[in-house]
Amino acid sequence: MKLDKELIEKVAKNARLKLTEKEIKNLVPEIKEILDLFSAMDKAPVSKLQPSFQPLEIKNVTREDEAKDCLSQKEALQNTKHKQDGYFKGPRAI
Amino acid sequence: MNLTKYIDGVKSGKISVVKTVEKILNEAKNSPNHFAAITKQYALERAEFLEKKPEGRLAGVSISVKDCICVKNVESAAGSEILKDYRPPFNATVIEKLEAEGAIIIGKTTQDEFGFGSFSVNTKKIPKNPLDNLRSCGGSSGGAAGFTAFTTQPHLAIGESTGGSIANPASFCGVVGLTPTYGLVSRYGLIDYANSLDKIGTIAKSVNDAFLGLHVMAGHDKKDSTSLQQEIEKEKKVKKIAVIKESLDVDKEIKDLVLSKIRDYDLISLPSIKKYSLQAYYLIALAESSTNLARYCGLRYGASEALKGNFDQYFTEVRSKFFSQEAKRRIILGTFARMSGFRDAYYLKAMKVRTLIINEYQKAFKKYDILVSPTMPIIAPKFSEISKLTPAENYMMDILTVGPNLAGLPHLSINAGFKNKMPVGIMLTSNYLHENKLQYLGGEIENQKV
Fold this sequence. Notes:
heterodimer, A: mainly alpha, 3 helices, 35% helix, flat, B: alpha/beta, Amidase signature (AS) enzymes, eleven-stranded mixed β-sheet, 13 strands, 16% strand, globular
């Protein structure tokens, strides 16, 4: 795998980020240095171990499907400028 | 004055809550960038109410809250520009619990954007260390620890740790930082950094003050599916302690100060933690944070622009404009680690390394009650020194705190003395839910006459 401008741009596009030429120029060596740091994990003796997605084992939590109080429409919309007729107003889909 | 004495004074009518809150609000205003927002009017109204009706385990206690914890109708931006002016329409569970016991929220403390940093410099308002304004408070709960050291009034700070963000600033500011077992305190209402690592805890002037706050906040919460159903173990006796050999590879003065605080200890080696914990921690933290940051798109809350272009164009525009350089770096790295083709080599590997680290700790806890190390390998650095560090060198600063955070283990940082007039922290780590042992040994260390 070659870490270069093209790969950074591809990842950025996936993450909905548009980077400037300067940002990309800085990111390439910085990310290389960090990935080098991460490569120490290659030697870790973990082939027989299971992954720990949480530090402690957690159980599935279920609840009854009952209607409860929730945020009012006004509260849900209080933090956006983009609203109309009690709904969020978004950019066009295509 | 410790909190217990203060609360007794409030309840007996000998101490005025209003006068205390007036003084602390004044200090908050004059503190060197420790607050992102001060809730003056609300705090004074609460103080008047509590002076008349001083009830609860925290009756009349002033509380500062890290910016990433939601307080209803108070700007909660997690130190970021993309959440600027966000006023949550609800309280985090910890806020509900603290207020139900008579606490008074005085404001939101400054931090690295979303917790991304070790020195609280990745944000617009940078908190300064009260012991030396040219130095950092540490991070990411920098404002919380800085103000705890700065204030002369009874106070408790609520912080949050993902990889060391409570212990680190507590060490740099010479105060007590308590990070509980993962899941002991509800994360509901916390603006997430990395879900499998985030823990809300306390920063205080004394060990008992820090634990008083923890006991109010701890407990199962139906609103947080990762919240534990168990309680803190009753046992508090500490029979055997061990110093982690690899952690002593630091400045000699720091090492000597830490070792001078304990006696009758064994020296043990935990090699995997030194070799792999930093890498696994950052991989997991970056992968989880990049998914968490996907929600910020300028639509339902936070910063926004005029609606132009399609969804992709608009979201890209807002995110590119309002995320800082460090957030962008973490999004790129985290997205990369989760992409098909790289997932097994990075993300899954890191999750397996976490198992290796947990197993190594568990083996040690079969024999020892507490593991000891310095909290940080250095004293609080100057801002001029921080600016010279590369991103990877920045990440390396967390080498001693990431182990217990990755494993979700409770840990306590206490001041062990001073080097060049700056504080040095000693860190105690116990097994899951053995917080009482931390309190016991932490209290012993705190009461030593240096």
